[in-house]
Specification:
The complex is a heterodimer.
Chain A: H1 6-13, E1 26-32, E2 37-45, E3 51-59, H2 62-75, H3 80-85, H4 88-94, H5 103-120, E4 132-134, E5 139-140, H6 141-151, H7 156-163, H8 173-186, H9 197-218, E6 221-229, E7 232-239, H10 240-243, H11 247-262, E8 268-271
Parallel strand pairs in A: 7-8
Antiparallel strand pairs in A: 1-2, 2-3, 4-5, 6-7
Helix pairs in contact in A: 1-2, 2-5, 4-5, 5-7, 6-8, 9-11
Chain B: E1 4-5, H1 16-22, H2 24-27, H3 38-57, E2 65-68, H4 71-85, E3 91-95, H5 100-111, E4 115-119, H6 129-135, E5 140-144, H7 158-167, E6 171-175, E7 194-198, E8 209-213, H8 228-231, H9 239-277, E9 281-283, E10 294-299, H10 304-312, E11 316-317, E12 319-320, H11 323-326, H12 333-337, H13 342-345, E13 348-352, H14 359-379
Parallel strand pairs in B: 1-11, 3-4, 3-5, 5-6, 6-7
Antiparallel strand pairs in B: 2-8, 7-8, 9-10, 10-13, 12-13
Helix pairs in contact in B: 1-9, 3-9, 9-14, 10-14
The chains are: A alpha+beta, B alpha/beta.
């Protein structure tokens, strides 16, 4: 049995935004029934060009349904530029993580969003000319490149987990290996190993405990980690910090810098009230 | 929440009487059956009795029974022994729908230079016997065909197949882990050389199995060690489990007819009601030659893992041949070999019953399942209400 987080289970059992938007501004279908999962996404914009309504129909396993539901919740209210920036990792993080073997579900969500936006912009609904690498699952070179780049993948197995490519007959494993090498050679060298969500959250917690909390406590303050969504670290202020006017400066200049130093340079701190 | 266990081809509940038979051999009678003292020797006598009980279930002689650790070990021991017996032969004949215990072993042996023929099956999961006969060659060291398929319950005509192999001097092995205890088997009346049994499929515990080896068959041990099992399987005997398996075989022999009639009635009721209540559903595999306890049903346009998890919410346990449940990305090799279309293969559910299921449980499943399928279909981009018109078989 897969180890799904409570949030995945909750979104699977009570999926949000199921259906099709009437007179949609953008629409997309990705995946296929042969591959075992497919997602149909449609959205409508409001007068400010923000996503007013977005609905999905998904054929697939529990995590495919949960990621579809999560995606629609995440992008509602966003501009299309903002929605374009939602990565598959953000979707997975929103759900508290996915089993590695199920990451392709989050990639499917990301692809559907991109395609629906392309469709709105009047772009060709078809893929730009790109070679199919995995015949079994119809995965293109471009899709594999993107997954390798965005998720810092380094093995064929990881590519299979994220895109399904290579999960059938295995005939394309060499081609996938070459794509990985090419993309990684071209990619800017990463200073740190990529963190899984769990690792990231653990390191953030450790850093708060070790580097941050002691200093805040000296002034009678404290913070509590509420959630980590992609690179957004959501914290709530406690004690003296909760009423301190300079708390946001402390958060930006002290907490964020510490977390960037010790965990990942991409982290952004955000204060939430709970 | 009450558990409704319809996954008995995965494993079964240990029978109360089996557990009772085993318990003393954990607590008090822990002696080693090989010991010279009475304390150990009395355990040895119980093992002899268990061997007789197991032999009686399949019409074998006690010395033809080798206790192993599981069905997989039995399969490995049988096939490897046959290859050792005929070092000049490099061909293994098997089918596309075998359990991984045979399938993966053959794939592994193929990398070591053996030639493997995997016979195809038709859309009903049936072997073409003419094709089988043509595939038997002077180079064939062993045939390994399962008696009953674990996913569909479809039975292979292994007795006929064994005869054809014997006529050509070829060893015949069958993985019968799903068949033993569910259908009558009489080794006196067939030409099968080796047969695998798994304890936990017939209400004995996990971690115990049997390899039947016909008297006179050349056998090389898989586990080499002590003199246990007449030097055909080294390793101190798993005494409580052997005694438990003996008792389970005795119970199966005594009750098979009546129990199977009951299980068959429940299975047929479950199957008929599901097909009647849920459009675009169909049974995978022939319904003519099949285990009495198994039905494999596909629900078009929905995915198996999602069905399983929604059933799990009601405490209903079954399994699926969908890609998402297998850990691979493709639907089960059995359904693919049968050419089940993708629209159906991803939404396949196997229900496998046992004597412990009740009519009430079956009613509960019949009542809950239609709304589960309907709910998933309402989310599926492939499902249109109009599709119901083209309802499946």
């Amino acid at each position: 049995m897969w180890e799904y987080t409570d949030k995945v289970k909750e979104h699977f059992l009570n999926p949000r935004n199921v259906g099709e938007v009437e007179n949609p501004d953008g629409i997309a279908e990705v995946g296929s029934i042969a591959c075992g999962d497919a997602l149909k996404l449609s959205f409508k914009l409001d007068e400010n060009k923000r996503i007013k309504d977005i609905k999905f129909k998904t054929f697939g396993c529990a995590s495919a349904i949960a990621t579809s539901s999560a995606l629609t919740e995440m992008v509602k209210g966003m501009t299309l530029e903002e929605a374009m920036k939602v990565t598959n990792q953000d979707i997975a993080a929103y759900l508290g993580g996915l089993p590695q073997e199920k990451m392709h579900c989050s990639v499917m969500g990301k692809q559907a969003m991109e395609k629906a936006i392309e469709n709105y912009k009047g772009g060709p609904p078809t893929e730009p000319a790109t070679q199919i690498i995995c015949e079994c699952f119809g995965v293109t070179e471009r899709e594999i490149e993107q997954a390798v780049r965005e998720n810092n993948l380094s093995t064929v197995e990881e590519v299979t987990n994220y895109t399904k490519a290579g999960g059938g007959c295995g005939g394309c494993h060499d081609a996938i290996r070459q794509i990985i090498e090419r993309v990684r050679a071209g990619a800017a060298p990463v200073a740190r190993p990529k963190l899984s969500n769990i690792q990231k959250i653990k390191m953030i917690e450790e850093t708060i405990d070790r580097e941050i909390r002691p200093s805040l406590k000296k002034d009678g303050g404290d913070i509590e980690l509420v959630d980590v969504i992609g690179n957004r670290v959501l914290v709530a202020t406690r004690g003296a910090c909760a009423t301190c006017k300079a708390a946001d400066i402390t958060l930006k200049h002290f907490v964020e810098l510490k977390l960037r130093d010790f965990v990942s340079p991409e982290l952004v701190i955000e204060e939430v009230t709970t | 929440m009450k558990t409704i266990y319809l996954d008995n081809n995965a494993t079964t509940q240990v029978a109360e009487k089996v557990l009772d038979a085993m318990l003393p051999y954990f607590r008090d009678l822990y002696g080693n059956p090989s010991s010279m003292h009475t304390f150990g020797g009395q355990v040895g006598r119980k093992i002899r009795a268990a061997r007789e009980q197991a032999a009686a279930l399949i019409g074998a002689q006690p010395e033809e029974i080798i206790f192993t650790s599981c069905g997989t070990e039995s399969d490995n021991a049988a096939i490897r022994s046959a290859l050792m017996a005929h070092p000049d032969r490099r061909h293994i004949l098997t089918s596309r729908v075998e359990h991984p215990a045979v399938k993966s072993l053959c794939a592994n042996l193929s990398r070591q230079g053996y030639r493997i023929t995997e016979l195809p099956v038709d859309k009903d999961g049936i072997l073409d016997m003419a094709q089988y006969e043509r595939a038997l060659t002077p180079d064939t060291a062993i045939v390994s065909l399962m008696w009953a398929n674990n996913e569909t319950g479809v039975l292979f005509p292994v007795e006929k197949a064994a005869e054809l192999a014997a006529e050509r001097g070829i060893l015949f092995h069958t993985d019968a882990v799903q068949a033993v205890g569910k259908i009558p088997i009489n080794m006196k009346a067939n030409a099968i050389d080796m047969l695998s049994i798994s304890g936990h499929k017939l209400h004995a515990p996990k971690g115990i199995g049997i390899l039947y080896v016909r008297k006179g068959t050349k056998f090389s041990p898989f586990l080499i060690g002590g003199h246990q099992e007449k030097e055909r399987r080294g390793g101190t005997e798993n005494t409580p489990s052997i005694i438990g398996l003996g008792r389970a075989c005795e119970l199966a022999a005594a009750n098979m007819d009546t129990e199977n009639r009951m299980v068959l009635l429940l299975r047929d009721k479950l199957e008929a009601e599901i097909l009647a209540r849920i459009p675009n559903s169909r049974v995978n595999g022939t319904r003519l030659y099949r285990l009495p306890n198994t039905t494999n049903i596909s629900f078009e346009f929905v995915e198996g893992e999602a069905i399983l998890l929604l059933m799990d919410d009601y405490g209903i346990c079954a399994s699926s041949g969908s890609a998402c449940t297998s850990g691979s990305l493709q639907p089960s090799h059995v359904l693919r070999a049968m050419g089940v279309p993708f629209t159906m293969a991803h939404g396949s559910i196997r229900f496998s019953l046992s004597i412990y299921n009740t009519e009430e449980e079956i009613h509960f499943v019949i009542e809950k399942l239609p709304s589960i399928i309907e709910r998933l279909r309402s989310m599926s981009p492939y499902w249109n209400v109009g599709d119901q018109a083209c309802s499946a078989q």
